[in-house]
Amino acid sequence: MQPDISVKHLNKTYEDGFQALKDINLEIYPGEIFALLGPNGAGKTTLISIICGIVNKSNGDVKAAGYDIIKDYRKARESIGLVPQELNTDSFETVWNAVSFSRGLFGKPANPDHIETVLKDLSLWDKRNNRIMSLSGGMKRRVMIAKALSHEPRILFLDEPTAGVDVELRRDMWEMVRKLRKNGTTVILTTHYIEEAEEMADRIGVIRNGEIILVEDKARLMSKLGKKELRLHLQHKLDKVPGELTLEPVELSDDGYELIYTFDSQQQQAGVARLLRTLSDLGIDYRDLQTRESSLEEIFVGLVHE
Fold first, then answer.
1. Going by DSSP bridges, is the β-strand pair 186-190/286-293 parallel, antiparallel, or unpaired?
2. Could you list the residue ranges that cross the membrane (predicted)?
3. For each successive 10 residues of the chain (306 residues), what is the average pLDDT?
């Protein structure tokens, strides 16, 4: 399968000598939701801007929908819809006119039915005749997404799409993104809301200091790098971890009523069984136990700070 986005040995160095991207290699395939995660200044926006033709690369090869972003700029750009971080709307225009005009910028003939569908999918239909300046921040964000979808791109970049959006609107946008993927659109998402990536993404890419340090299927990533935690709620308080347990990764809670055992999610359960046998041999009773797995946020923080 030919990737919708192909990036090979991409570098970007600014005039002041700062290298924003270092030998980036990345392929994103049709119909997938790809989440690009990284701390501020990691290079996420620079990478997106180069693919979208906004920032010039220093060297390397980049293709969108099979078109080289330099040699076939127009065709490559026509295949892309971009929702940037910054709110940048035509304040005095109506929603309908702004979205329709955006379609015309790509040389597409008028298609009122498509514009109507986009506005309804984004819950903007009732606002179609409102001036954009009168809308809330969340609604303005939706208008930007509508403009990006106006020319029916096969690839959609969402750079922090839910920044400043309330929880209800955020979940509506998640549903919209899933619908786009179902219709065959490739979605590339950058976000600071890690639960957003955990909820929606098929694959995760992590960028740090201008380098891609990991690209992995989300489920496999959480399995490989995640931790599991077993919490035992004790019948009686302990003053310290018994000496027989010091070889295990066991901690005692501050109040002395919980033992916390942490282990790799890929590790066999032998360690848990051994722990429980040892507690039984020591006569330490527990009234309840709970297990939990690492969230994507915890894995991401660990990757970035390692």
1. unpaired
2. none
3. 94 94 96 88 91 95 96 94 80 93 91 94 92 88 90 92 72 82 90 75 89 84 66 84 75 84 62 77 81 62 62
Using an 8 Å Cβ cutoff, are 185 and 155 in contact?
A: yes
Taking a C-beta distance cutoff of 8 angstroms, is the pair 164, 85 a contact?
no
Sheet order of strands, 258-264 included = 250-252, 258-264, 227-234, 286-293
Residues 6+ apart with CB under 8 A from 87: 137, 140, 141, 144
Distance CA 92, CA 89 (A): 9
**CATH code where residue 234 lies:** 3.30.70
Identify the sign of the CA torsion 65, 300, 159, 44: negative
Q: Name the strand (E) or helix (H) holding 39.
A: none
pTM: 0.73
Range of the domain at 297: 227-305
Residues 213 and 248 in one domain: no
With tokens 């390397």, the residue in question is 60
What is the rounded CA–CA span in Å between residue 77 and residue 206?
A: 25
* CA 145 from centroid of its chain's CA atoms: 16
In this structure, what is the dihedral angle of CA atoms 212, 213, 219, 224, given to the nearest 10 degrees?
170
Task: Catalogue the long-range contacts made by 179-184 (C-beta closer than 8 Å, 24 or more residues apart).
Answer: 179/121, 180/149, 180/156, 181/31, 181/32, 181/33, 184/30, 184/31, 184/154
Whether 198 and 296 have beta carbons less than 8 Å apart is answered as: yes
CA dist., res. 137 & res. 55, Å (int): 27
Structure tokens at 112: 């009122």
> 22: part of which helix (H) or strand (E)?
strand 19-28
Rg of the Cα atoms in the chain: 24
